[in-house]
Amino acid sequence: MITIIGKNSKLYSALRSLLNKNELQEVSHTEIYSLDKLEIAIVFSFDKTSFRSNKKMLDAILEKSPKKLIYISTTAIYSMHYTKGYAYPKIKKEIENYLLQHLNAHIVRVGLVEGLFNPSKFTGDIKYSPLELIAESIKNILHEKYSQRILEAWISKNFHNSNPFRRYVYS
Description:
Helices cover 29% and strands 25% of the residues. The chain is of the alpha/beta class. Helix 2 (51-62) runs parallel beside helix 3. The longest helix is centred in the middle third of the chain and has 13 residues, at 87-99. The radius of gyration is 17 Å and the shape is globular. The chain starts with a strand and ends with a helix.
């Protein structure tokens, strides 16, 4: 049984129809504490307040001894080299580093997700994640088609925006 942690996640809601619903159990991050065991966990939940709160949730998942834990992360971690004022990529990278200490953990990094952002706000090449590619990456981990522990579930896509202000700001 595959347990989705983060049943209310916007990303998971967008992906739900692409994953095999017959094999899925959906729970929120607060419900994991009542579960006895987890066979496979796919974590969409994220607490933006701190690494510590995310670690607490992940430890509760790891205590259930899942064969596999798949954590949905972000390409925003690459921005850490350019900014220190944005906590989101820092926390996500800390989570990745923590999980990679566990041999059963895998990371799926996504960029801007199809249908979950406004393309008119971007111009130039971006890290873009089609829903099909994210679902395929998750399935490839589940079926052990790749040995690497971090899968990049994005493609480079060029967005053309005619607004000159946005071209200046985002390029």
